Amino acid sequence: MRGLTTAASIWATCSLGVAVGVGRYLLAVGATVLVGVTLGGLRAARDLLRRWAVSREEFTLMTRGSFDLEQVAELARREGVSVRGLDREPADGGDRVVLVARLPRRYPPERLLEALTRFPHVREVEWDG
């Protein structure tokens, strides 16, 4: 959706520039208001839907030494997060652990990201969000 609204915003900006360039100032002002209200309304609708939606997120942990995957499972249970996938792949100097999780409603992914970074032997956590 982000790419679609960005492309539409660029198109609308170009159209407004053309309207101003040919001297149609009233049309340009009206269109500017219409575009602003539309984008603001779409953002509000997106935020409302995100607030009530259940999300699926993917986290990648880069670990060093021995890392117990049971720690991740225990954290998920405590937080009410449903684990959809948990894979471990050997990497340079440690492992790469990919966690696919379904988060409860209104649960901020940043909260789980922060909790994962606090584990011992975790060097880095990436979130595809």
Overview of the molecule:
The protein is of the alpha+beta class and 129 residues long. It is built from 4 helices and 4 strands, in the order ααβαββαβ. It has a 4-stranded antiparallel β-sheet, with helices on one face. Strand 2 (82-91) and strand 3 form a beta hairpin. Helix 1 (2-21) packs antiparallel against helix 2. The mean pLDDT is 88.
Q: Give the end-to-end Cα distance, rounded to a whole number of Å.
A: 14 Å
- Assembly state of the chains shown: single chain
Number of DSSP strand runs:
4
Helical content class: 40-55%
Q: How much is the average pLDDT?
A: 88
What is the makeup of the main sheet? Answer: 4 strands, antiparallel
Task: Indicate the overall shape.
Answer: elongated
Based on secondary structure, the structural category is: alpha+beta
Q: What's the alpha carbon Rg, rounded to whole Å?
A: 22 Å
User: Spans with pLDDT under 50 lasting ≥5 residues?
Assistant: none
Q: Report the portion of residues in β strands.
A: 25-35%
Give the ordered list of helices and strands. HHEHEEHE
